[in-house]
Amino acid sequence: xxxxxxxxxxxxxxxxxxxxxxxxxxxxxxxxxxxxxxxxxxxxxxxxxxxxxxxxxxxxxxxxxxxxxxxxxxxxxxxxxxxxxxxxxxxxxxxxxxxxxxxxxxxxxxxxxxxxxxxxxxxxxxxxxxxxxxxxxxxxxxxxxxxxxxxxxxxxxxxxxxxxxxxxxxxxxxxxxxxxxxxxxxxxxxxxxxxxxxxxxxxxxxxxxxxxxxxxxxxxxxxxxxxxxxxxxxxxxxxxxxxxxxxxxxxxxxxxxxxxxxxxxxxxxxxxxxxxxxxxxxxxxxxxxxxxxxxxxxxxxxxxxxxxxxxxxxxxxxxxxxxxxxxxxxxxxxxxxxxxxxxxxxxxxxxxxxxxxxxxxxxxxxxxxxxxxxxxxxxxxxxxxxxxxxxxxxxxxxxxxxxxxxxxxxxxxxxxxxxxxxxxxxxxxxxxxxxxxxxxxxxxxxxxxxxxxxxxxxxxxxxxxxxxxxxxxxxxxxxxxxxxxxxxxxxxxxxxxxxxxxxxxxxxxxxxxxxxxxxxxxxxxxxxxxxxxxxxxxxxxxxxxxxxxxxxxxxxxxxxxxxxxxxxxxxxxxxxxxxxxxxxxxxxxxxxxxxxxxxxxxxxxxxxxxxxxxxxxxxxxxxxxxxxx
Length: 629
Ligand SMILES: Nc1ncnc2c1ncn2[C@@H]1O[C@H](COP(=O)(O)OP(=O)(O)OP(=O)(O)O)[C@@H](O)[C@H]1O
What we know:
Belongs to the TRAFAC class myosin-kinesin ATPase superfamily. Kinesin family. It comes from Parnassius mnemosyne (clouded apollo). Keywords: ATP-binding, Coiled coil, Cytoplasm, Cytoskeleton, Microtubule, Motor protein, Nucleotide-binding. One of its GO terms (cellular component) is microtubule associated complex. This protein is of the alpha+beta class. It has two domains: about 5-25 and about 35-470, Kinesin, CATH 3.40.850.10; about 475-629, no CATH class. About 35% of the residues lie in helices and about 20% in strands. It has helices spanning about 30-35, 135-140, 180-185, 190-200, 215-220, 240-250, 310-325, 375-380, 380-405, 420-430, 450-460, 475-500, 530-590, 600-605, 615-629; strands at about 40-45, 55-60, 90, 105-110, 115-120, 125, 125-130, 150, 155, 165-170, 175, 200-210, 260-270, 270-275, 290, 295-300, 305, 325-330, 330-335, 340-350, 355-370, 435-440, 465, 470. Strand 18 and strand 19 (about 330-335) form a beta hairpin. Helix 4 (about 190-200) packs across helix 6, helix 6 (about 240-250) packs antiparallel against helix 7 and helix 13 crosses helix 15. The protein is elongated, with a radius of gyration of 34 Å. Adenosine-5'-triphosphate binds near residues 209 and 217.
């Protein structure tokens, strides 16, 4: 079914019983194809285990859409964590609460390239903490929970050495060990993140923490769950699957819009970027490049798979999870040996109130960072040791970036370029994205040092501010902004005409030529218009704008001239009044000429009659005429 079909997400789908398609690995394209991926759309061949026919999917290199953004006050950014209550921001099992600062969208025009932007006010990164339960190994060593959760999003850690005071850390929400996966979805703010991705914002949820602290569990669930093809409604699923289900719910609730979803999945393994949907790239890693247009880093030649149905997103997740690097060490039998980035791009074609169809380009990234490791504790050697060193190095760079970014005005150079991870997270950390950090910690004493480090990291990250923007097609943004300008100028024109008693609508330009009225673009037709017609349409808008601007400036000129004339007239009036009073005073002193009442005396006899200054001035001119005679 074509995704272009607006009815794709109609309630019909709601009734659909989920049938999980167990996808086998997506086959890598022939090497010759790989070279061309960046230039044109290619077909990624997928087979299904249940004997379905090979299904071709469009894939193309990571898109670099124009970063024009919509300027519209309707794009307010509500708090990431809804129903916030400051009283008890700690989630045990099914408790609620959360907090998040609210922000209102502000109108802003940036001249980055030739684009306009809708940007929100700066806001801090949202940080939540998830504490995993004590595991079997720890229990067998007689360990127990040593962290306290007093509520209000606080975690209390005992001192790391005897006699040291306990430390209190505060976050948006704290998930205690008993919190379920559903609680994390409901109260972490990830739902709001998805809603914002649908609206066109670039959103990221990333898990950070030491090895074995529950990052993968939080995002994907227990080891092997995704690969086993479990139902998406399994209570064990982590945030990613739950988010996919919620995302499709959101899309179904917007039948007025047309959505196109594309997913990609990569890992950074030993500082190499590998496409998890095209494992062939492990031999020839992908390059991270800088895009001048979008002013952000992107991965060249990365597959993006069209996802028309929920199943397609699961297939991507399943395929990538199967291909990611996992290893075992003393602290985690299923340790992630790489950082992974699962990205779902959401293109939304929406009809604006001005008969123009605009596209927004939102995105939701799920980043599962490999855990920091103290190699002495994990007993890493050989390959695992090399992996651990690379993981620790990239996390260290991430730490430097977070420290610099959180330093407010003292912000110095931010070393994004020092690792692939920070290059790809740059926009989420301090650019134009909305970010949720889930700091994962273990509750036992043997992990206390690492726990305190993670909590410090998270506390620093909480200070980072970003300024989210909605991404739109440059063409749509231009047409929309020109249309708005035409309307504003027309309103101004009409106002000036009324003020100057000039009758008639705006119809002609300053040379008296009839201005060609810009045609109305029919809803949803913008995309079907050929390039030449679009250019013509833009030119017409621009012409109309400049004609209006010219006429408005002339009207302003006329108005200024009239104001100057008025000023001169009133000065003349004052001079004449004074002269009249002087003449009157001479008359009073003369015994022959009877005293004439002064101008002010005439007025005082009829106190209730309002005297028009222009008539008054006419009177004074008449009196002067009489006197001169
Ligand atoms: N909240 C939780 N509830 C139940 N089990 C959990 C929880 N968090 C983690 N676990 C279990 O602890 C083990 C380690 O978790 P996980 O693999 O998610 O850690 P990790 O932080 O991703 O580690 P690494 O960085 O080494 O990949 C897993 O078996 C996981 O199922």
